[in-house]
Every structure is written in structure tokens, then in C-alpha cells.
């Protein structure tokens, strides 16, 4: 077995494309710095709407298989080699938007037993031994059932992995030192939308999304960490998003999902530390998610 990288980052997401939209710069940075970056995606996004007309025939399992390839291509752009599907490919199905009959599918993520789903992630946590976990807030950023469930699975698995009484596979109990939720500060979102609305006539999008549509938006005071992308990492993020071609149209520094509403492509990514101790710099906001992490303090 090869030696573990000293810094290990775990990200938990709902569908292929969420990781690149939310954390592309962060993933590219830490992969480039030699940290172990592990992505766990909970579903293949089989209920996603397909943007390109020539791929419009894809749906269900065929779309899931296609999105798995898009995810692999995106990870290639970010330099991330360790990406996994929760419980294996196809174990949990996309639940669709809140309130739809899709949510009643017994195989969908929304219907999954929380501890059973978390057990798959406990095994990953004990194998990878991440010091840092990144996931969504308790509303999944914007209320999608799979995003809410991904949040619950991530937080529950972090607890279970740290409990020596919970037996899972071969790994020893491991406590994740720092847990972050994806955030966007309202002032940054408002400034980005002001620039977007000025630029809109020259963009391939007819309309802009609303500021309040931005997932995970909070006041400035809730932001505890800021990862400012270098041009190389920003380019990697845009390329990773472009790799999810069934889901995203990119026109840097903007993009649109299947609703065709333009949004800013954030090349600075923001986080709120919800568990653990910040390793604060002079300006009071972390610029490194591993700040204050010393190594194997999570071993129990
Ligand atoms: Zn999603």
C-alpha cells in the first residue's frame, strides 16, 4: 500500500456536476498541491434534464452512464483521481426535484435509510482518513432532496466514523478534524450578478437567474474560509464544468443550467466551518481548509 498523503480532503455531493460547480477551484488547488482529494457522489443524476438536443434521447440508466463519463472527464480536468459513487454505481437513484412523484421511488436517495447510506461513507472515511470534509448546508444549499440527503449522510457518517463502537469494514475509527459547508456570501453574489446583468446582452443566455437562487447564500459574517482560485485553477474549474455537457453551458465567467438562466461562475469559493477549530490567519478568514491541521490527530 502506498503511503498516505499528509493532507486529505473528502467532498460529498449529490449528483455529477455539483462538485465542479461548488468546489472546482478548491479541488484543483488541493490536487495540484499533492493533497489526497476524494469525491463521493451519491447518485448518477439520472433524472437530470439534458441540454444538448443531440443528447436529448438520453434518460434514466443511459443518462446515468453518460453522466458517469462526464464526471470522469471533469475529474481529469481537476486532476482528481479518487472519485466514487456512494455504495457503488447505481446504488442510489436520483430523486428529482422536491414534491415530484420521483421522490417516492424506493431506490431513490431521498428514500434511502440514513444509517445504511451513511455506512457506505463511514467505510470511505475510515479508509481515506480525511482531516477535512466539505458538503452542503442542512437545506442542501437550495432544497433539492438529494442535496439535503447528501448533507445528512455526510454529517451522520462523520459521527459514525468517529465512534469506535461502530464496526465497519477494516478501518479504525477516525474523527474528521474540520467540517465545512459550501457557502456564497450575499455581497459577493450581488456584485457578481450586477456584472452579469451588464454583460448579459453579449452572452449566449437570454436571461439571468436571481441573486436569491444562489445555493448556500449567507451574510458575509458566516464565511470563515475563502479559496481564491489562481487563473490555472479557475480554468480547470471552467473546463470541469464544461465536461458536464448534458447539464451545463459555460461562457466564462458565467454559466447556465438546463433552465437557461445565466449565473456567475465563482472562481473564488467560500466556506463556513461548522465543526472543528479554525487556524486563523491575520485577516481572520482562513485561506486554507487545512489550516491548523497537523496530520493524524483524527485517529482514535
Ligand atoms: Zn445536484
Automatic annotation (TrEMBL):
Catalytic activities: 1D-myo-inositol 2-acetamido-2-deoxy-alpha-D-glucopyranoside + H2O = 1D-myo-inositol 2-amino-2-deoxy-alpha-D-glucopyranoside + acetate
Taxonomy of the source species: Bacteria, Bacillati, Actinomycetota, Actinomycetes, Kitasatosporales
Protein purpose: Catalyzes the deacetylation of 1D-myo-inositol 2-acetamido-2-deoxy-alpha-D-glucopyranoside (GlcNAc-Ins) in the mycothiol biosynthesis pathway.
PANTHER family according to UniProt: 1D-MYO-INOSITOL 2-ACETAMIDO-2-DEOXY-ALPHA-D-GLUCOPYRANOSIDE DEACETYLASE (PTHR12993:SF26), N-ACETYLGLUCOSAMINYL-PHOSPHATIDYLINOSITOL DE-N-ACETYLASE-RELATED (PTHR12993)
InterPro entries, per the entry: GlcNAc_PI_deacetylase-related, LmbE-like_dom_sf, Mycothiol_biosynthesis_MshB
Keyword annotations of the record: Hydrolase, Metal-binding, Zinc
Pfam families per UniProt: PIG-L (PF02585)
Residues annotated for Zn(2+) binding in this entry: 15, 18, 147
HAMAP family documented for this protein: MshB
Protein name per its UniProtKB record: 1D-myo-inositol 2-acetamido-2-deoxy-alpha-D-glucopyranoside deacetylase
Keyword Hydrolase: yes
Manner of cofactor binding, per the entry note: Binds 1 zinc ion per subunit.
Enzyme superclass (EC): hydrolase
EC identifiers of the protein: 3.5.1.103
Domain of life according to the entry: Bacteria
